[in-house]
Amino acid sequence: MKNSIFKQIIWPVLSLTIICIVVSLALGATNMVTSAKIQANLDAVNNAGRQEVLPDADKFTVVELTQELSDLGVTEAAVADNGGMVINVQSKGYGGELPIMVGFDAGGTITRIKILDNSETPGVGKRVEEESFYGQFSGLQGDISGVNTLAGATVSSTSVKTSVQNAIAAQKLIGEGA
After folding, report:
1. What is the CA radius of gyration of the chain?
2. How many whole angstroms separate alpha carbon 72 and alpha carbon 91?
3. Looking at the chain, which terminus has fewer C-beta neighbours within 10 angstroms, N or C?
4. How many C-alpha atoms does 164 have within 13 Å on its Cβ side?
5. E strands of the chain, at which residues?
6. Cα gap 144→162, rounded to integer Å
7. Does residue 73 contact residue 102 with C-beta atoms inside 8 Å?
8. Closest Cα to residue 99, out of 166, 9, 16?
9. Which residues contact 37 (CB under 8 A, 6 or more apart)?
10. What confidence tens digit (pLDDT) does each residue in 139-163 have?
């Protein structure tokens, strides 16, 4: 009787516990070995995106976010060695949060913006990814009131304008040392 309780209850539980411990240790070891490589790849992807909106920069230093920057929708900010800056910012679009990346040269002029993960409606809100729309921001400094929203994609294009305006405010805050 005692032997059958061991075989029916205790042994399966003990076996599964040992398997869970071995698998957990293996996953932990794998994470320790690969985490540096994963972070290096993520940094390379982020730097490539930053380079796209601020082509004159070659090295970036990520800025620690303050509550004031987070309140503006800033998810990341990086200062370039040449004095430029790249700010990732998001605001609510039609399909959820619409993240963008905004590049600024050393003088505070927008070099370029890049739409990141766009989950807006295909054929409508996705039009914010067209050069004819996002290209309007290049060369602007401080005032984006002349940027036209897209007919039929007003919510999405207004979200991009809001994000760019917030990035301009964040750029000034970071420049002041906030």
Report:
1. 24
2. 9
3. N
4. 33
5. 60-62, 74-80, 85-93, 96-104, 110-115
6. 10
7. no
8. 166
9. none
10. 888 888 878 777 777 778 888 888 8
